[in-house]
């Protein structure tokens, strides 16, 4: 989003200064390996979130440490949904 200037006060408006205060987020682990069946399941989950008024926003990769920091770390992806 480009930065804009407010004409009334001649101040800079940043994307964070115009966010909706009532915005709700939902974050869900969606895994990291996708078979054809899993892709269909992900599609269903996205549709379920949409039915509840959430829009898909983004996805990001995380690595979770192993048990007590000693076990093998696991990787997964998190889907972020937003509701205005």
Question: What is the gist of this entry?
Answer:
With 84 residues, the chain is an alpha+beta fold. It is 19% helix and 40% strand.
Provide a descriptive summary of the structure in words.
This protein is α+β, with helices and mostly antiparallel strands and 84 residues long. The protein has one domain (21-83). The protein is built from one helix and five strands, in the order βββαββ. The protein has one helix at residues 36-51, and strands at 4-6, 11-13, 24-31, 55-64, 74-83. The strands form two sheets. A three-stranded antiparallel β-sheet has the order 3-5-4. Strands 1-2 form a two-stranded antiparallel sheet. The longest helix has 16 residues, at 36-51. The protein is flat, with a radius of gyration of 18 Å.
Tell me the layout of helices and strands:
Blueprint: E1 4-6, E2 11-13, E3 24-31, H1 36-51, E4 55-64, E5 74-83
Antiparallel strand pairs: 1-2, 3-5, 4-5
Give structural attributes.
single chain, 84 residues, alpha+beta, three-stranded antiparallel sheet, two-stranded antiparallel ribbon, disordered N terminus
Structural class: alpha+beta
| Sequence stretches where pLDDT stays below 50 over 5 or more residues | 1-18
Radius of gyration of CA atoms, rounded to a whole number: 18 Å
The total count of strands amounts to 5
Strand order of the largest sheet: 3-5-4
Instruction: Give the integer mean of the pLDDT values.
Output: 79
**What does the overall shape look like?**
flat
How far from one another are the termini?
A: 18 Å
Helical segment tally?
Answer: 1
- The percent range for strand residues is 35-45%
Q: Domains counted in the coordinates: how many?
A: 1
Q: Helicity, in percent? A: 10-25%
Order of helices and strands: EEEHEE
